[in-house]
């Protein structure tokens, strides 16, 4: 009888549908029964603020939340991460108990940068290689006279400078510990400076710093009001491994030591000089033919047409060029570059806000070299409409980043459905797309959903689609969200695309 009974149960079970059997199994499976290893992997996708909330659920989740493997990269700046440590005692306990040998990266605000904290990091976190120290809001520094230890394995150091606090007392204590640095960021207060002229303080001694950091590969001096050509000269005199130098928004840089820079730094392949005060005569003195330069940003400089032609026709192999907002950049520059230079290695081009380049000049250049481009930015140019883009999209078969449109109200309409359709059918590798046109200039129909569907289905690598706020933005956002691609569509008020993603040292140049 027992065997017949079991048989009847099996027969009854076999009559259950697949969905019913799945629901029975699901009813027996809860998150409580997942192995710790799986839970740990799930937690790894959460922010640290969310992990702290999860720790309150139960004892098991608390143990997992405090696993040191979830705390390898930590920001303790509330405005960045939302994490706030209330006291030095709490931080010291965290370093000892939760961070330990697993910690690789840490960001500290001014109130937590003390010699005791730095001692603990040096002693308890032997694998710490990346550190950010934020002094930007400092009114005064802690006393570092007793500091005897500092992390010794740092490869990356980012220091956010104050406008008025002199750093030499602190820097003098760490010089002996940072000679292994490969990446250095010094971040100034460019975005905070008011228009009226104020006295400029040299709050950090670059000439001493360069002697302590001979192994630097990447130097980023961003928005520092006292940085000039002498500081570039100082770094080049001691950093023979230099591959990438960025001095964006350092307005005192004129290029007077650029020739010496390339003579000393034979490996220098990336030079970013956005919003500097470059002088054409200095730039033309550089022996460009002998350089290893591959990536150049001269956006919003005042270089002449003669200088641009001289430089672009002599650089042997340029793969990345950002030269927007330059009055001297016109069709004659593009023509000379095509006929006398070597754009055959070019993969990224940004000519945004270059009003003296015509759509005809761009069409001729892109017809020849568009097929090799990965990134193209032609924004802020009212005369460049969807007609030019429609004509060159079939050429941009390898493109990954496209930035188009202007926020100025135009006298013509942009037919965005046809534009999206052209992008979808010609650019399968597209990862980032930004349309900056005013929403009032965008014309689309009731059939827009079809064009958006084609874009979403054919551009599967799309990570970011940026649009100006408006009705079309809402339509596109809803379409992607229905397909569970929640983070792709963004607004220009909170996100901007850039060709910088294509720089060799992009990951090294990122800072908060």
From TrEMBL:
A Pfam entry, by short name: F-box-like
Domain F-box: 28-74
InterPro entries (alphabetical): F-box-like_dom_sf, F-box_dom, LRR_dom_sf
Gene3D superfamilies in the record: Ribonuclease Inhibitor (3.80.10.10)
GO biological process entries: positive regulation of protein ubiquitination
Highest taxon listed in the record's lineage: Eukaryota
PANTHER family: F-BOX INVOLVED IN POLYQ PATHOGENESIS, ISOFORM A, F-BOX ONLY PROTEIN 33
Protein name per UniProt: F-box domain-containing protein
Organism (species): Bemisia tabaci
